Amino acid sequence: MPLLDVRDLSVVFQRKGTRPVRAVDGVSFTVEPGQTVGLVGESGCGKSVTSLAIMGLLPRRGNKVTGEVRFDETDLLKLRPQDLRDWRGRDIGMIFQDPLSSLNPVIPLGLQVAEVLERHQGRTRKAALKQARDLLDAVGIPDPDRRLDEFPHQLSGGMRQRALIAIALACKPRLLIADEPTTALDVTIQAQILTLLKELVDDSGTALVMITHDLGVVAGLCDTVNVLYAGKVVERAYRHQLFAEPRHPYTHGLLQSVPRLDVDRGERLHQIRGSVSDNIPWSEGCAFAPRCDRVIDDCIGETVPLEPTFRGGALRCTNPVPQEVPA
Amino acid sequence: MSDALVEIDDLKVHFPIKSGLLFDRTVGYVYAVDGVSLKIKRGETYGLVGESGCGKSTLGRGLLRLVEPTSGGITFDGTDVRALSGERMRLFRRRMQMVFQDPMSSLDPRQSVESLLIEGLKAHGLRTSMHEKLRSTLDSVGLPASALSKYPHEFSGGQRQRIGIARALVLDPELIVADEPVSALDVSIQAQVVNLLDDLQESLGLTYLVIAHDLAVIRHISDTIGVMYLGSLVEEATADQLYERPLHPYTKALLSAVPIPDPLVEDRRERILLAGDLPSPANPPSGCRFRTRCPWSQIRCAEERPELRVFDDSGQRVACHFAEQILSGELRPHEVRAELVRPAGDAAVDAELIPTQGDLPTP
Ligand SMILES: Nc1ncnc2c1ncn2[C@@H]1O[C@H](COP(=O)(O)OP(=O)(O)OP(=O)(O)O)[C@@H](O)[C@H]1O
Ligand SMILES: Nc1ncnc2c1ncn2[C@@H]1O[C@H](COP(=O)(O)OP(=O)(O)O)[C@@H](O)[C@H]1O
Ligand code: SF4
Ligand code: SF4
Ligand SMILES: [Mg+2]
Ligand SMILES: [Mg+2]
Q1: Cβ-count burial of A99 within 10 angstroms (0-12 exposed, 13-18 middle, 19+ buried)?
Q2: Per-residue confidence band for B358, with pLDDT thresholds at 50, 70 and 90
Q3: Are strands B45-49 and B207-211 parallel, antiparallel or unpaired?
Q4: Disulfide: which of A76, A97, B75, B178 matches A69 by Cβ 3.0-4.6 Å?
Q5: Residue A48 in contact with residue A210, Cβ under 8 Å?
Q6: Which CATH class is domain B4-222?
Q7: Left, alpha or beta for B10 (phi > 0: left; psi -120 to 50: alpha)?
Q8: Which residues contact B121 (CB under 8 A, 6 or more apart)?
């Protein structure tokens, strides 16, 4: 049984006098206990809105969320806000791109970690602070005893992200949602943080939803990958499957267009034409059709459905990239 | 005529750190660029990589004198650029143009594309067959002539970057300094802009200095790559050589940190994980600036700053005392403890009072 089961999740933003924006459009995916699942896609495809909807963190007004978010059989979308708050932090941890905005600037770090432990695990202040010290140590923050009394702005971006990871993992949640946790960091710091995350989730058996635009990050980390385009999942596959044989023309095009450090430099990069502003609405066919090299008549007219492939994979395409026939 | 279009000699850009109520006292310096020498050959692409804050942008801006260098020499096509003053510098600048990272914030939203492009031409007194020139420039960056009457917000990120490139091109420059030209763009758009830069270089014979933190992109477009760390070049080599045989420990760590979109490769990779953060450029370590994070550092590294020296016949340059011993395996890496680095102080650096020239339109 999956730990997290997101079914047909949609989020529509609607403000008076503006056209509704369908930011997330019927997204379904599951996360098994201990599994690492990737959500990849480019800016604006609905990654962050999906994660905020799962956590119940979207603004109260101006949007409509439909579908189900089952965590351990409980539909989080049906919980009252105060009950949901108990789940957050205790059963589900989260990390965002910008650690500074998720840390409280006027509370010392130690206390911020300790408060989570006090609230969810009923620790005394003293015990919680001691545990906070150990947590800061575990995420690789130098000299943790002294860091307890310091404030977020006294730390570098990488160290702040470590502090946030310490808070997110303080209660040993069963699920961690990380939204672009390394995008604002330099590549050498990114490598530190990704290695740390991998070790921590491996050790604790925490399931991880990794949200990123970087296919390289996914390649090293995720068991299963969901590729999002314009608010919908267009392809889902096991990591090795997805990278070895991408079937969706968008996934295929993306993988071909990024220069790789480990292969000889080609002359020109493969490029995907146009931009997301050329998309057509999903109700009129495949949103990617105006940019797609493989577009055929069947792609236009009505929504292309997401069809299961094998081993839990799925594909939303009428004319997918052919599979290589083994010789 | 030498084959170098640009020669930078021991360039330094130090920003004063002011303190006191009226910021009248200089209490130190940010050594943003601290003694860089390099040559950029005519028609080639020189790529500059390094972590944020290591001085890449400041070097690019110092080269164009958008920020005044503290010392050092800049020669462009035989002309001593630092000796040019006022009006002559302004006219000279047409030959060296800049393309910025964020196409939205570098384009004035109230100006149509036409007036954005004309602005530069006018400033340089170039009025001949203006309309034809604008159309052909737009065409060369893959935008229709109808774009002329539109405004920046009507375009996607990739198209705005094309406008930024067109604005530089319309002046027929010889050198383009592109500071993170694709890093603000979506992955699916990056290839378009990279290919465009390639095509333009081919057809117009442009010389590029491309600044980026993405090593895979830099390797793809560059002929020569310079790796910067804390204000200095630590290594320089041809793009292939740098990847084949990185000599400097920092280059090795940087290359090993870049994620590769292939699980088969990722599963087998050995990473050199660097401890801690980039030290503050206001308070760089003594000796080798990389020593606080270097897994090969020795006592000598704290005492003596390694010079960027030619390593062998390949022309590869490296600033490390022990490059030979590290390459041969004679010197083994050891563990490094992370040192805590404080982020730049709140009020210490007051950018407004620092004599930099405006970043934007470079007429
Ligand atoms: N509060 C809001 N009101 C209206 N539209 C919104 C709001 N938040 C997000 N959107 C829209 O929803 C869509 C998806 O946004 P989302 O932030 O999930 O993208 P993302 O995939 O996380 O992108 P990025 O990679 O840039 O973080 C976008 O078109 C965005 O403009
Ligand atoms: N105008 C300025 N005043 C003071 N310090 C500056 C200024 N511009 C850049 N710096 C500092 O110089 C260093 C190098 O910056 P920069 O060249 O922008 O790095 P990069 O482009 O490699 O990220 C940084 O520490 C930065 O904060
Ligand atoms: S459905 Fe058609 S247009 Fe869409 S990705 Fe597949 S082939 Fe291309
Ligand atoms: S000089 Fe010393 S500290 Fe610097 S890179 Fe070489 S071995 Fe490392
Ligand atoms: Mg987002
Ligand atoms: Mg920069």
Answers
A1: buried
A2: very low
A3: parallel
A4: A76
A5: no
A6: alpha beta
A7: left
A8: B127, B130, B133, B170, B171
Backbone φ, ψ for residue B57 (5° rounding): -65, -40
CA-angle at B125, arms to B120 and B128, nearest 5°: 95
Closest CA of chain B from A216, distance in Å:
4
- Write out the two tokens for B178: 């592109």
The answer to whether the CB of A312 falls within 8 A of the CB of A236 is yes
**In the structure, what pLDDT confidence band is assigned to residue B155 with cuts at 50, 70 and 90?**
confident
Question: β-strand A175-179 against A92-95: which pairing, if any?
Answer: parallel
* Residue B360 in this model has a pLDDT that exceeds 50: no
- CB contacts under 8 A, B 259-298 vs A, are 259-267, 269, 271, 273-274, 276-278
Distance CA B96, CA B109 (A): 24
Residues ≥6 apart with Cβ < 8 Å to B115: none
**CA–CA distance, B273 with B292 (Å, rounded to integer):** 13
Cα-to-centroid distance, A225 and ligand 4 (Å): 40
For residues A95 and A168, what is the distance between their CA atoms, to the nearest angstrom? 7
Q: Where are the domains of chain B?
A: 4-222, 247-355
> Would you say residue A252 has pLDDT above 80?
yes
Number of helices (H) and strands (E) in chain B: give both, helices first: 12, 12
CB contact under 8 A, A259 and B217: yes
Q: Among residues A302, A316, A312, which one has the least CA distance to residue A35?
A: A312
3-state helix, strand, coil in chain A (%, to 5): 35, 20, 40
Which tokens sit at B26?
A: 């200089």
CB B176 within 8 A of CB B168: yes
The β-bridge partners of A177 are A94, A209
Q: What ligand 2 atom has the least distance to the C-alpha of B17?
A: 4
* Residue count (chain A): 327
Distance CA A256, CA A245 (A): 12
Strand order in the sheet with A4-13: A21-31, A4-13, A63-71, A74-75
State the Cα–Cα distance between residues B63 and B9, nearest whole angstrom: 11
CA dihedral B249, B251, B256, B262 (to 10 degrees): -160
Which of residues A314 and B276 earns the better pLDDT score? A314
Pairing of strands B317-318, A92-95: unpaired
Can you say whether residue A140 is alpha, beta or left, with left for phi > 0 and alpha for psi between -120 and 50 degrees?
Answer: left
Interface test with A, best of B188, B192, B346 (most A CBs within 10 A): B188
Coil, strand or helix: which one is A47?
helix
CB B183 within 8 A of CB B214: yes
Closest chain A residue to B269, measured at CA: A220
pLDDT of residue B353: 32
CA pair distance B237, B243, nearest whole angstrom: 9
Contact B187, A270 (CB under 8 A): no
A207-212 and B45-49 as β-strands: parallel, antiparallel, unpaired? Answer: unpaired
Q: How does DSSP classify residue B215?
A: H
- DSSP symbols for B5-26: EEEEEEEEEEEEEEESTTS-EE
Tell me the pTM.
0.89
Phi then psi for residue B356, to 5 deg, are -105, 150
What single-letter amino acid sits at A183? T
Contact, A133 vs A168, CB < 8 A? Answer: no
Mean pLDDT of chain A: 92
**Mean pLDDT for the stretch of residues B57-79:** 95
Tens of pLDDT, residues A123-134: 999 999 999 999
What ipTM score was computed for the predicted complex, to two decimals?
Answer: 0.89
Would you state the torsion angle of the CA atoms of residues B352, B355, B360, B362, taken in this order, to the nearest 10 degrees?
160
